[in-house]
Amino acid sequence: MSFRPAPVRRAKEQVEVQLREAILSGTFSSGDRLPSEMELSQSFGVSRTTIREALGGLASAGLISKVPGASGGSFVRVVDHESLGLSLGRSIDDTLKFGSINFEEVNHVRRLLEVPSAREAARMRTEEDVEALRAIIERQKEAAIEDPEGMAGLDSGFHTRIAEASGNRVLASLVFALHSVIRQALFLNVTPEQGSTAVRQHINIARGITNGDADEAGRAMEDHLDYLDHLQIWRKKPAS
To answer: Where are the domains of the chain?
Structure first.
């Protein structure tokens, strides 16, 4: 048996992985404030921009919340269904890599979960859920033009937040797990125009959820997933 060297992670990924492991291992407990961006920058030997990107990934994953202001910072969230999602995601990813399942199956399960998820979110959403979805969409509007690669993380955050708004933490764990696999196994290759279209579709989904209209939210989610499947913009990462 022979081993081949694994691709070297980008600085942002190295930081995100280590902070994620520190949170899940209990080094940082729920409610703890993480060190400042400057402190983390010095500890990891990377730029503050890199730290900011890594923290953004953790926030999208639901592991931390970012509080603005002088007394704010990045705070560890309660780790429950998120940790379950991470565990499930790793298991699915391993099975996918060994060829026991394929991406088409993963993508199909995503549809089976996310359309009902949007419908249930319309029934159960809170004002906090609505505001969180709006905030993600605002970030997506900029990323669609300026940072297409960053759309993948924001997309995952949007869909996971919808599942959380359903009030069913097991459903949220499953959706989170599927998106963690998609982000690791594939990359979202979109043009600015396609990205903007996807954002408009997210707005339609959020509108249905905000209005408490389960039928509207479900249809909008179906339209969005149909659009992604039609474009076939999810592509396997090229070999390193």
So the answer is: 11-76, 81-236
CA gap 99, 189 in Å, rounded:
23
Q: Which CATH class for the 81-236 domain?
A: mainly alpha
Q: Contact at 8 Å (CB) between 186 and 236?
A: yes
C-alpha count within 13 angstroms, C-beta hemisphere, residue 236: 8
Query: Which tokens in the block code for residue 41?
Result: 């920058």
Q: Which two tokens stand for residue 100?
A: 């026991």
Exposed (0-12), middle (13-18) or buried (19+): which is 162, by Cβ within 10 Å? buried
Condensed to tens digits (0 to 9), the pLDDT of residues 68-115 reads 877 788 998 766 676 678 778 878 888 888 888 888 898 899 999 999
Phi, then psi, of 67 in degrees rounded to 5: -110, 120
Same fold yes or no, 11-76 and 81-236:
no
Contacts of 14 (CB under 8 A, 6+ apart): 44
What single letter denotes the amino acid at residue 138? E
What does the pLDDT look like over 41-64, one tens digit per residue?
999 999 999 999 999 888 877 788
